[in-house]
Amino acid sequence: PVLVVDYGAQYAQLIARRVREANVYSEIVPHTFTTEQLLAKNPAAIILSGGPSSVYAEGAPSVGADLFEAGVPVFGICYGFQAMANALGGKVAQTGLREYGATEATTVGGGARSILEGTPESQNTWMSHGDSVHEAPAGFEVLATTAGAPVAAFANEEKALYGVQWHPEVKHSTNGQQVLENFLFKGARLEPNWTTGNIVEEQVERIRQQIGDSKVICGLSGGVDSAVAAALVQRAVGDQLTCVFVDHGLLREGEAEQVERDFVAATGVNLYVANEQERFLNALAGVSDPETKRKIIGREFIRAFEEAERAIIAQAAAEGEKIKFLVQGTLYPDVVESGGGEGAANIKSHHNVGGLPEDLQFELVEPLRALFKDEVRAVGAQLGLPQEIVGRQPFPGPGLGIRIVGEVTKERLDLLRKADAIARAELTAAGLDNEVWQMPVVLLADVRSVGVQGDGRTYGHPIVLRPVSSEDAMTADWSRLPYELLARISNRITNEVDGVNRVVLDVTSKPPGTIEWE
Ligand code: XMP
Protein backbone atom coordinates (compact mmCIF):
# COMPACT_ATOMS: atom_id res chain seq x y z
CA PRO A 1 0.00 0.00 0.00
CA VAL A 2 0.79 3.69 -0.04
CA LEU A 3 0.98 4.62 3.64
CA VAL A 4 -0.36 7.99 4.73
CA VAL A 5 1.23 8.97 8.03
CA ASP A 6 -1.34 10.89 10.05
CA TYR A 7 0.08 13.91 11.85
CA GLY A 8 -3.32 14.61 13.25
CA ALA A 9 -5.07 17.42 11.43
CA GLN A 10 -7.87 15.59 9.63
CA TYR A 11 -5.99 15.80 6.34
CA ALA A 12 -4.86 12.18 6.33
CA GLN A 13 -8.24 10.75 5.33
CA LEU A 14 -8.54 13.23 2.53
CA ILE A 15 -5.06 12.36 1.24
CA ALA A 16 -5.85 8.65 1.41
CA ARG A 17 -9.03 9.23 -0.60
CA ARG A 18 -7.22 11.27 -3.24
CA VAL A 19 -4.62 8.53 -3.63
CA ARG A 20 -7.41 6.01 -4.13
CA GLU A 21 -9.11 8.33 -6.63
CA ALA A 22 -5.88 7.91 -8.57
CA ASN A 23 -6.57 4.14 -8.40
CA VAL A 24 -3.78 3.39 -5.96
CA TYR A 25 -4.51 1.60 -2.68
CA SER A 26 -3.68 3.61 0.44
CA GLU A 27 -3.88 3.14 4.20
CA ILE A 28 -3.60 5.55 7.11
CA VAL A 29 -1.13 4.90 9.93
CA PRO A 30 -0.52 6.94 13.11
CA HIS A 31 2.56 9.15 13.39
CA THR A 32 3.64 7.15 16.41
CA PHE A 33 4.71 4.36 14.04
CA THR A 34 8.48 3.88 14.03
CA THR A 35 10.42 3.55 10.79
CA GLU A 36 10.58 -0.17 11.47
CA GLN A 37 6.80 -0.43 11.84
CA LEU A 38 6.28 1.57 8.66
CA LEU A 39 8.64 -0.61 6.65
CA ALA A 40 7.07 -3.77 8.08
CA LYS A 41 3.93 -2.86 6.12
CA ASN A 42 5.95 -3.11 2.95
CA PRO A 43 4.91 0.32 1.62
CA ALA A 44 5.12 1.13 -2.06
CA ALA A 45 5.39 4.79 -1.07
CA ILE A 46 4.87 6.94 2.00
CA ILE A 47 3.06 10.27 2.32
CA LEU A 48 3.62 12.42 5.39
CA SER A 49 0.45 14.41 6.04
CA GLY A 50 -0.15 17.92 7.30
CA GLY A 51 -0.56 18.55 11.00
CA PRO A 52 -1.23 21.28 13.49
CA SER A 53 2.21 21.62 15.03
CA SER A 54 5.38 23.56 14.51
CA VAL A 55 8.36 21.22 14.22
CA TYR A 56 9.83 23.22 17.10
CA ALA A 57 6.83 22.83 19.40
CA GLU A 58 7.36 20.70 22.47
CA GLY A 59 6.32 17.11 21.78
CA ALA A 60 5.93 17.81 18.06
CA PRO A 61 5.85 14.57 16.09
CA SER A 62 9.03 13.98 14.13
CA VAL A 63 10.14 11.59 11.45
CA GLY A 64 13.26 9.45 11.68
CA ALA A 65 16.00 10.32 9.17
CA ASP A 66 16.46 6.57 8.58
CA LEU A 67 13.11 6.50 6.80
CA PHE A 68 14.68 8.42 3.91
CA GLU A 69 17.45 5.85 3.50
CA ALA A 70 15.08 2.91 3.11
CA GLY A 71 14.68 3.23 -0.64
CA VAL A 72 10.94 3.96 -0.33
CA PRO A 73 9.60 7.04 -2.20
CA VAL A 74 8.37 9.68 0.26
CA PHE A 75 6.15 12.73 -0.26
CA GLY A 76 5.94 15.29 2.54
CA ILE A 77 2.92 17.60 2.68
CA CYS A 78 2.76 20.81 4.77
CA TYR A 79 3.81 19.70 8.26
CA GLY A 80 5.20 16.49 6.72
CA PHE A 81 7.26 18.62 4.34
CA GLN A 82 8.73 20.60 7.21
CA ALA A 83 9.36 17.51 9.33
CA MET A 84 11.17 16.02 6.35
CA ALA A 85 13.27 19.16 5.80
CA ASN A 86 14.12 19.21 9.50
CA ALA A 87 15.11 15.54 9.62
CA LEU A 88 17.34 15.84 6.57
CA GLY A 89 19.21 18.93 7.73
CA GLY A 90 17.34 21.68 5.84
CA LYS A 91 16.49 24.94 7.54
CA VAL A 92 12.98 25.49 8.94
CA ALA A 93 12.51 29.07 10.10
CA GLN A 94 10.10 30.32 12.71
CA THR A 95 9.34 33.59 11.01
CA GLY A 96 6.15 34.24 12.88
CA LEU A 97 4.59 34.94 9.48
CA ARG A 98 1.60 32.85 8.59
CA GLU A 99 0.38 31.97 5.14
CA TYR A 100 -3.21 30.89 5.26
CA GLY A 101 -5.66 30.21 2.45
CA ALA A 102 -5.25 30.71 -1.29
CA THR A 103 -1.62 31.41 -2.16
CA GLU A 104 0.16 31.68 -5.47
CA ALA A 105 3.11 29.31 -5.91
CA THR A 106 5.67 29.85 -8.69
CA THR A 107 7.56 27.01 -10.28
CA VAL A 108 11.34 27.42 -10.32
CA GLY A 109 14.31 25.31 -11.46
CA GLY A 110 13.41 21.85 -12.69
CA GLY A 111 9.99 21.86 -11.05
CA ALA A 112 8.19 21.54 -14.36
CA ARG A 113 10.05 18.30 -15.04
CA SER A 114 9.43 16.92 -11.55
CA ILE A 115 6.22 16.61 -9.52
CA LEU A 116 4.96 19.93 -10.89
CA GLU A 117 4.94 18.59 -14.45
CA GLY A 118 1.81 19.57 -16.34
CA THR A 119 0.90 22.36 -13.89
CA PRO A 120 1.07 26.10 -14.71
CA GLU A 121 4.17 28.08 -13.81
CA SER A 122 2.07 30.07 -11.40
CA GLN A 123 -0.59 28.03 -9.61
CA ASN A 124 -3.23 28.43 -6.92
CA THR A 125 -2.39 26.49 -3.81
CA TRP A 126 -4.03 26.17 -0.41
CA MET A 127 -1.70 26.99 2.46
CA SER A 128 -1.88 26.76 6.21
CA HIS A 129 1.48 27.17 7.88
CA GLY A 130 3.45 29.30 10.33
CA ASP A 131 7.03 28.06 10.00
CA SER A 132 8.56 27.87 6.56
CA VAL A 133 11.45 26.05 4.94
CA HIS A 134 14.26 28.52 4.14
CA GLU A 135 16.89 26.10 2.92
CA ALA A 136 16.36 22.76 1.24
CA PRO A 137 18.38 19.83 2.62
CA ALA A 138 21.62 18.90 0.79
CA GLY A 139 20.94 16.98 -2.40
CA PHE A 140 17.49 18.59 -2.86
CA GLU A 141 16.43 20.98 -5.58
CA VAL A 142 13.92 23.77 -4.93
CA LEU A 143 10.89 23.36 -7.23
CA ALA A 144 8.63 26.26 -6.21
CA THR A 145 8.42 29.37 -4.04
CA THR A 146 5.69 31.56 -2.60
CA ALA A 147 5.78 35.00 -1.00
CA GLY A 148 5.99 33.50 2.48
CA ALA A 149 7.89 30.29 1.77
CA PRO A 150 11.22 30.60 -0.09
CA VAL A 151 11.22 26.80 -0.41
CA ALA A 152 7.61 25.81 -1.13
CA ALA A 153 8.41 22.51 -2.87
CA PHE A 154 11.53 20.40 -3.22
CA ALA A 155 12.77 17.12 -4.65
CA ASN A 156 15.61 14.68 -4.54
CA GLU A 157 14.89 12.76 -7.74
CA GLU A 158 17.62 10.20 -7.21
CA LYS A 159 16.12 9.06 -3.90
CA ALA A 160 12.50 9.72 -4.96
CA LEU A 161 11.95 12.11 -2.05
CA TYR A 162 9.55 15.02 -2.56
CA GLY A 163 7.68 17.62 -0.61
CA VAL A 164 5.31 20.59 -0.94
CA GLN A 165 4.37 23.24 1.58
CA TRP A 166 0.77 23.46 0.36
CA HIS A 167 -2.11 21.00 0.59
CA PRO A 168 -2.46 19.24 -2.78
CA GLU A 169 -5.31 17.10 -1.37
CA VAL A 170 -7.79 19.98 -1.04
CA LYS A 171 -9.79 21.13 -4.04
CA HIS A 172 -8.72 24.76 -3.50
CA SER A 173 -5.26 23.71 -4.72
CA THR A 174 -6.26 23.80 -8.37
CA ASN A 175 -3.56 21.40 -9.60
CA GLY A 176 -3.35 19.37 -6.42
CA GLN A 177 -4.48 16.04 -7.85
CA GLN A 178 -2.00 16.40 -10.71
CA VAL A 179 0.86 16.97 -8.25
CA LEU A 180 -0.20 13.99 -6.16
CA GLU A 181 -0.45 11.79 -9.24
CA ASN A 182 2.94 12.98 -10.47
CA PHE A 183 4.37 11.75 -7.18
CA LEU A 184 2.56 8.41 -7.42
CA PHE A 185 3.17 7.63 -11.07
CA LYS A 186 6.40 9.46 -11.93
CA GLY A 187 8.14 9.78 -8.57
CA ALA A 188 7.17 6.42 -7.09
CA ARG A 189 6.42 4.71 -10.43
CA LEU A 190 3.27 3.00 -9.17
CA GLU A 191 0.59 1.35 -11.29
CA PRO A 192 -3.03 2.54 -11.08
CA ASN A 193 -4.50 -0.88 -10.31
CA TRP A 194 -6.92 -0.16 -7.45
CA THR A 195 -10.13 -0.24 -9.45
CA THR A 196 -13.70 -1.04 -8.53
CA GLY A 197 -13.50 -4.31 -10.47
CA ASN A 198 -10.39 -5.34 -8.54
CA ILE A 199 -11.92 -4.38 -5.22
CA VAL A 200 -14.90 -6.63 -5.90
CA GLU A 201 -12.72 -9.56 -6.97
CA GLU A 202 -10.41 -9.19 -4.01
CA GLN A 203 -13.22 -8.89 -1.46
CA VAL A 204 -15.16 -11.80 -2.91
CA GLU A 205 -12.05 -13.95 -2.62
CA ARG A 206 -11.44 -12.86 1.00
CA ILE A 207 -15.05 -13.47 2.00
CA ARG A 208 -14.94 -16.97 0.50
CA GLN A 209 -11.82 -17.75 2.47
CA GLN A 210 -13.26 -16.43 5.71
CA ILE A 211 -16.68 -18.05 5.45
CA GLY A 212 -15.84 -21.32 3.75
CA ASP A 213 -19.04 -23.36 3.50
CA SER A 214 -20.62 -21.97 6.68
CA LYS A 215 -23.89 -20.08 6.91
CA VAL A 216 -23.99 -16.34 7.34
CA ILE A 217 -26.61 -13.78 8.34
CA CYS A 218 -26.90 -10.10 7.47
CA GLY A 219 -29.14 -7.18 8.42
CA LEU A 220 -30.44 -4.80 5.75
CA SER A 221 -31.47 -1.29 6.76
CA GLY A 222 -32.36 0.18 3.37
CA GLY A 223 -29.08 2.13 3.43
CA VAL A 224 -26.06 1.91 1.15
CA ASP A 225 -23.58 0.21 3.45
CA SER A 226 -25.63 -2.78 4.51
CA ALA A 227 -26.88 -3.29 0.94
CA VAL A 228 -23.40 -3.29 -0.59
CA ALA A 229 -21.95 -5.47 2.18
CA ALA A 230 -24.77 -7.99 1.66
CA ALA A 231 -24.40 -7.92 -2.12
CA LEU A 232 -20.66 -8.65 -1.85
CA VAL A 233 -21.25 -11.57 0.49
CA GLN A 234 -24.02 -12.84 -1.77
CA ARG A 235 -21.64 -12.67 -4.74
CA ALA A 236 -19.08 -14.63 -2.72
CA VAL A 237 -21.15 -17.38 -1.08
CA GLY A 238 -24.61 -17.21 -2.65
CA ASP A 239 -27.25 -19.20 -0.79
CA GLN A 240 -25.19 -19.54 2.36
CA LEU A 241 -26.35 -15.99 3.11
CA THR A 242 -29.70 -14.99 4.61
CA CYS A 243 -30.55 -11.30 4.96
CA VAL A 244 -32.91 -9.91 7.57
CA PHE A 245 -34.97 -6.82 6.91
CA VAL A 246 -36.80 -5.43 9.92
CA ASP A 247 -39.50 -3.19 8.48
CA HIS A 248 -40.18 -0.77 11.34
CA GLY A 249 -42.56 1.35 9.28
CA LEU A 250 -40.38 4.44 9.73
CA LEU A 251 -38.82 4.41 6.27
CA ARG A 252 -39.73 6.81 3.49
CA GLU A 253 -42.06 6.07 0.60
CA GLY A 254 -40.76 3.29 -1.61
CA GLU A 255 -37.80 2.33 0.57
CA ALA A 256 -39.16 -0.94 1.92
CA GLU A 257 -40.00 -1.95 -1.66
CA GLN A 258 -36.45 -1.08 -2.74
CA VAL A 259 -35.17 -3.67 -0.29
CA GLU A 260 -37.86 -6.32 -0.66
CA ARG A 261 -38.26 -6.12 -4.43
CA ASP A 262 -35.41 -4.28 -6.18
CA PHE A 263 -32.51 -5.45 -4.02
CA VAL A 264 -33.69 -9.04 -4.14
CA ALA A 265 -34.16 -8.83 -7.92
CA ALA A 266 -30.64 -7.42 -8.37
CA THR A 267 -28.86 -9.91 -6.10
CA GLY A 268 -31.05 -13.01 -5.76
CA VAL A 269 -30.46 -12.93 -2.02
CA ASN A 270 -32.51 -15.00 0.49
CA LEU A 271 -34.54 -12.39 2.33
CA TYR A 272 -36.29 -12.76 5.67
CA VAL A 273 -38.73 -9.88 6.21
CA ALA A 274 -39.95 -9.05 9.69
CA ASN A 275 -43.07 -6.88 9.38
CA GLU A 276 -42.91 -4.97 12.63
CA GLN A 277 -44.78 -1.75 11.86
CA GLU A 278 -47.41 -2.40 14.56
CA ARG A 279 -44.82 -3.22 17.16
CA PHE A 280 -42.97 0.07 16.68
CA LEU A 281 -46.17 2.12 16.63
CA ASN A 282 -47.32 0.51 19.87
CA ALA A 283 -43.96 1.06 21.54
CA LEU A 284 -43.90 4.71 20.44
CA ALA A 285 -47.48 5.51 21.46
CA GLY A 286 -47.70 8.56 23.71
CA VAL A 287 -43.96 9.37 23.46
CA SER A 288 -42.74 12.73 22.18
CA ASP A 289 -39.31 13.15 23.78
CA PRO A 290 -36.69 12.69 21.03
CA GLU A 291 -34.12 10.74 23.05
CA THR A 292 -36.81 8.46 24.44
CA LYS A 293 -38.02 7.81 20.89
CA ARG A 294 -34.48 6.95 19.81
CA LYS A 295 -34.03 4.56 22.73
CA ILE A 296 -37.35 2.84 22.08
CA ILE A 297 -36.65 2.45 18.37
CA GLY A 298 -33.14 1.14 19.08
CA ARG A 299 -34.40 -1.32 21.69
CA GLU A 300 -37.28 -2.64 19.60
CA PHE A 301 -34.98 -2.95 16.61
CA ILE A 302 -32.55 -5.16 18.48
CA ARG A 303 -35.37 -7.29 19.84
CA ALA A 304 -37.00 -7.69 16.44
CA PHE A 305 -33.65 -8.48 14.84
CA GLU A 306 -32.88 -11.10 17.50
CA GLU A 307 -36.27 -12.74 17.02
CA ALA A 308 -35.66 -12.96 13.29
CA GLU A 309 -32.20 -14.30 13.99
CA ARG A 310 -33.57 -17.03 16.25
CA ALA A 311 -36.07 -18.07 13.59
CA ILE A 312 -33.30 -18.33 11.01
CA ILE A 313 -31.00 -20.20 13.39
CA ALA A 314 -33.81 -22.66 14.14
CA GLN A 315 -34.50 -23.16 10.47
CA ALA A 316 -30.82 -23.79 9.80
CA ALA A 317 -30.62 -26.19 12.74
CA ALA A 318 -33.52 -28.16 11.30
CA GLU A 319 -31.38 -28.64 8.22
CA GLY A 320 -28.37 -29.60 10.35
CA GLU A 321 -26.62 -26.27 9.73
CA LYS A 322 -25.20 -23.66 12.05
CA ILE A 323 -24.96 -19.93 11.45
CA LYS A 324 -21.44 -18.83 12.25
CA PHE A 325 -21.04 -15.37 10.72
CA LEU A 326 -22.70 -11.96 10.83
CA VAL A 327 -22.08 -9.32 8.14
CA GLN A 328 -21.42 -5.72 9.19
CA GLY A 329 -21.14 -2.68 6.96
CA THR A 330 -18.21 -1.09 8.83
CA LEU A 331 -16.40 1.48 6.66
CA TYR A 332 -12.76 2.57 6.66
CA PRO A 333 -13.41 5.92 8.39
CA ASP A 334 -15.08 4.00 11.27
CA VAL A 335 -11.98 1.83 11.53
CA VAL A 336 -9.57 4.79 11.47
CA GLU A 337 -11.63 6.84 13.92
CA SER A 338 -11.88 4.03 16.42
CA GLY A 339 -8.10 3.69 16.49
CA GLY A 340 -7.60 1.39 13.54
CA GLY A 341 -7.77 -1.68 15.75
CA GLU A 342 -8.29 -5.10 14.31
CA GLY A 343 -10.95 -7.64 15.12
CA ALA A 344 -14.45 -8.13 16.31
CA ALA A 345 -14.43 -5.62 19.17
CA ASN A 346 -14.60 -2.84 16.65
CA ILE A 347 -18.35 -2.56 16.24
CA LYS A 348 -19.52 0.22 13.99
CA SER A 349 -20.21 3.04 16.41
CA HIS A 350 -22.85 4.79 14.37
CA HIS A 351 -24.76 1.76 13.20
CA ASN A 352 -28.19 2.48 11.84
CA VAL A 353 -30.82 2.07 14.51
CA GLY A 354 -28.74 1.99 17.62
CA GLY A 355 -26.38 -0.89 17.03
CA LEU A 356 -26.64 -4.64 16.86
CA PRO A 357 -26.73 -6.99 19.85
CA GLU A 358 -23.52 -6.95 21.88
CA ASP A 359 -23.50 -10.60 22.87
CA LEU A 360 -21.91 -11.62 19.67
CA GLN A 361 -22.24 -15.29 19.15
CA PHE A 362 -21.08 -14.67 15.61
CA GLU A 363 -17.79 -13.94 13.97
CA LEU A 364 -18.00 -10.69 12.00
CA VAL A 365 -17.62 -10.39 8.26
CA GLU A 366 -16.77 -6.81 7.33
CA PRO A 367 -16.22 -6.58 3.59
CA LEU A 368 -16.25 -2.75 3.54
CA ARG A 369 -13.62 -2.28 6.25
CA ALA A 370 -11.05 -0.98 3.78
CA LEU A 371 -13.41 1.27 1.80
CA PHE A 372 -14.45 4.89 1.82
CA LYS A 373 -18.11 5.80 1.21
CA ASP A 374 -17.60 6.79 -2.43
CA GLU A 375 -15.86 3.47 -3.06
CA VAL A 376 -18.77 1.64 -1.42
CA ARG A 377 -21.16 3.36 -3.83
CA ALA A 378 -18.93 2.45 -6.80
CA VAL A 379 -18.77 -1.18 -5.66
CA GLY A 380 -22.56 -1.23 -5.29
CA ALA A 381 -22.98 0.05 -8.83
CA GLN A 382 -20.46 -2.52 -10.10
CA LEU A 383 -22.52 -5.25 -8.41
CA GLY A 384 -25.61 -4.03 -10.27
CA LEU A 385 -27.52 -2.57 -7.33
CA PRO A 386 -30.28 -0.08 -8.18
CA GLN A 387 -29.25 3.59 -8.32
CA GLU A 388 -31.89 4.46 -5.67
CA ILE A 389 -29.93 2.36 -3.21
CA VAL A 390 -26.30 3.17 -4.11
CA GLY A 391 -27.03 6.88 -4.51
CA ARG A 392 -29.09 7.17 -1.36
CA GLN A 393 -28.43 10.24 0.75
CA PRO A 394 -27.78 9.83 4.49
CA PHE A 395 -30.90 8.92 6.43
CA PRO A 396 -31.02 8.47 10.21
CA GLY A 397 -31.50 4.99 11.63
CA PRO A 398 -34.61 5.99 13.65
CA GLY A 399 -36.03 7.22 10.35
CA LEU A 400 -39.20 9.30 10.21
CA GLY A 401 -39.63 8.61 13.92
CA ILE A 402 -37.37 11.59 14.65
CA ARG A 403 -38.79 13.73 11.84
CA ILE A 404 -42.18 14.03 13.49
CA VAL A 405 -41.84 16.63 16.23
CA GLY A 406 -44.35 15.19 18.66
CA GLU A 407 -45.90 11.77 19.04
CA VAL A 408 -45.47 9.28 16.21
CA THR A 409 -48.75 7.90 14.86
CA LYS A 410 -49.69 5.98 11.74
CA GLU A 411 -51.61 8.97 10.30
CA ARG A 412 -48.72 11.34 10.86
CA LEU A 413 -46.24 8.91 9.31
CA ASP A 414 -48.43 8.58 6.22
CA LEU A 415 -48.78 12.34 5.95
CA LEU A 416 -45.03 12.93 6.34
CA ARG A 417 -44.22 10.18 3.83
CA LYS A 418 -46.36 11.92 1.24
CA ALA A 419 -44.82 15.33 1.82
CA ASP A 420 -41.31 13.86 1.82
CA ALA A 421 -41.92 11.96 -1.42
CA ILE A 422 -43.05 15.17 -3.14
CA ALA A 423 -40.03 17.13 -1.90
CA ARG A 424 -37.61 14.41 -2.97
CA ALA A 425 -39.22 13.93 -6.38
CA GLU A 426 -39.04 17.68 -7.10
CA LEU A 427 -35.42 17.91 -5.95
CA THR A 428 -34.50 15.04 -8.24
CA ALA A 429 -36.49 16.49 -11.14
CA ALA A 430 -34.59 19.76 -10.71
CA GLY A 431 -31.34 17.80 -11.06
CA LEU A 432 -30.12 18.99 -7.67
CA ASP A 433 -29.59 15.69 -5.82
CA ASN A 434 -25.85 16.13 -5.96
CA GLU A 435 -25.92 19.72 -4.70
CA VAL A 436 -27.65 18.68 -1.52
CA TRP A 437 -26.12 16.47 1.15
CA GLN A 438 -29.51 15.54 2.53
CA MET A 439 -32.91 17.16 2.86
CA PRO A 440 -34.85 16.20 5.96
CA VAL A 441 -38.58 16.94 5.62
CA VAL A 442 -40.02 17.46 9.09
CA LEU A 443 -43.60 17.44 10.35
CA LEU A 444 -44.30 19.82 13.24
CA ALA A 445 -47.08 17.66 14.64
CA ASP A 446 -47.41 19.67 17.84
CA VAL A 447 -47.85 22.97 16.00
CA ARG A 448 -51.01 24.16 14.28
CA SER A 449 -51.61 27.35 12.42
CA VAL A 450 -54.57 28.97 10.71
CA GLY A 451 -54.83 28.83 6.96
CA VAL A 452 -57.39 29.35 4.28
CA GLN A 453 -58.16 26.85 1.59
CA GLY A 454 -61.07 27.19 -0.81
CA ASP A 455 -63.87 28.88 1.14
CA GLY A 456 -62.89 27.64 4.53
CA ARG A 457 -60.36 28.23 7.23
CA THR A 458 -58.02 25.39 8.07
CA TYR A 459 -56.11 24.58 11.17
CA GLY A 460 -53.22 22.47 9.95
CA HIS A 461 -49.59 21.51 10.54
CA PRO A 462 -46.45 23.03 9.05
CA ILE A 463 -43.91 21.00 7.09
CA VAL A 464 -40.28 22.12 7.38
CA LEU A 465 -37.80 21.69 4.52
CA ARG A 466 -34.22 21.31 5.76
CA PRO A 467 -31.93 21.03 2.70
CA VAL A 468 -28.25 21.20 3.71
CA SER A 469 -24.90 21.06 2.02
CA SER A 470 -22.10 19.35 3.91
CA GLU A 471 -18.90 17.33 3.53
CA ASP A 472 -19.30 14.98 6.45
CA ALA A 473 -22.44 16.00 8.47
CA MET A 474 -20.21 17.44 11.21
CA THR A 475 -20.83 20.95 9.93
CA ALA A 476 -23.40 22.03 7.37
CA ASP A 477 -24.87 25.04 5.68
CA TRP A 478 -28.43 25.47 4.44
CA SER A 479 -28.66 24.91 0.69
CA ARG A 480 -29.63 27.88 -1.45
CA LEU A 481 -32.24 26.04 -3.49
CA PRO A 482 -33.85 28.00 -6.35
CA TYR A 483 -37.04 29.85 -5.35
CA GLU A 484 -38.88 28.24 -8.28
CA LEU A 485 -38.16 24.79 -6.89
CA LEU A 486 -39.17 25.80 -3.36
CA ALA A 487 -42.40 27.26 -4.74
CA ARG A 488 -43.20 24.05 -6.59
CA ILE A 489 -42.56 21.89 -3.53
CA SER A 490 -44.66 24.20 -1.37
CA ASN A 491 -47.57 24.31 -3.84
CA ARG A 492 -47.64 20.60 -4.29
CA ILE A 493 -47.39 19.72 -0.60
CA THR A 494 -50.11 22.14 0.50
CA ASN A 495 -52.38 21.00 -2.34
CA GLU A 496 -51.75 17.28 -2.23
CA VAL A 497 -51.20 16.51 1.44
CA ASP A 498 -54.28 16.78 3.63
CA GLY A 499 -53.61 18.37 6.98
CA VAL A 500 -50.68 20.53 5.88
CA ASN A 501 -51.37 24.21 5.26
CA ARG A 502 -47.84 25.67 5.39
CA VAL A 503 -44.37 24.82 4.12
CA VAL A 504 -41.42 26.59 5.75
CA LEU A 505 -37.70 26.62 4.99
CA ASP A 506 -35.01 26.13 7.62
CA VAL A 507 -32.18 28.63 7.02
CA THR A 508 -29.91 27.69 9.93
CA SER A 509 -26.34 26.46 9.55
CA LYS A 510 -24.83 23.70 11.70
CA PRO A 511 -23.67 24.77 14.21
CA PRO A 512 -25.73 26.10 15.89
CA GLY A 513 -28.59 24.04 14.41
CA THR A 514 -28.27 20.28 13.92
CA ILE A 515 -29.27 18.75 10.59
CA GLU A 516 -32.22 16.86 12.05
CA TRP A 517 -34.87 18.61 14.14
CA GLU A 518 -34.79 15.99 16.88
P1 XMP B 1 -27.45 15.99 13.28
O1 XMP B 1 -28.92 16.11 13.37
O2 XMP B 1 -26.83 15.57 14.58
O3 XMP B 1 -27.17 14.81 12.25
O4 XMP B 1 -26.79 17.22 12.71
C1 XMP B 1 -25.92 14.48 11.73
C2 XMP B 1 -26.11 13.29 10.80
O5 XMP B 1 -26.50 12.12 11.53
C3 XMP B 1 -27.79 11.69 11.13
N1 XMP B 1 -28.49 11.30 12.35
C4 XMP B 1 -28.61 10.03 12.78
N2 XMP B 1 -28.21 8.86 12.23
N3 XMP B 1 -29.16 7.67 14.05
C5 XMP B 1 -28.49 7.69 12.86
O6 XMP B 1 -28.14 6.62 12.36
C6 XMP B 1 -29.60 8.81 14.66
O7 XMP B 1 -30.20 8.78 15.74
C7 XMP B 1 -29.31 10.04 13.98
N4 XMP B 1 -29.57 11.34 14.28
C8 XMP B 1 -29.06 12.10 13.26
C9 XMP B 1 -28.41 12.87 10.41
O8 XMP B 1 -29.38 12.45 9.43
C10 XMP B 1 -27.21 13.51 9.76
O9 XMP B 1 -26.82 12.85 8.58
UniProtKB/TrEMBL annotation:
Positions that bind ATP: S221, G222, G223, V224, D225, S226, A227
Pathway: Purine metabolism; GMP biosynthesis; GMP from XMP (L-Gln route): step 1/1
Residues of the GMPS ATP-PPase domain: 194-392
InterPro entries for this protein: Class_I_gatase-like, GATASE, GMP_synth_C, GMP_synth_GATase, GMP_synthase, GMPS_ATP_PPase_dom, NAD/GMP_synthase, Rossmann-like_a/b/a_fold
GO MF, any single term: GMP synthase activity
Role according to the record: Catalyzes the synthesis of GMP from XMP.
Subunit structure: Homodimer.
Protein name: GMP synthase [glutamine-hydrolyzing]
Protein species of origin: Arthrobacter cupressi
Lineage: Bacteria, Bacillati, Actinomycetota, Actinomycetes, Micrococcales
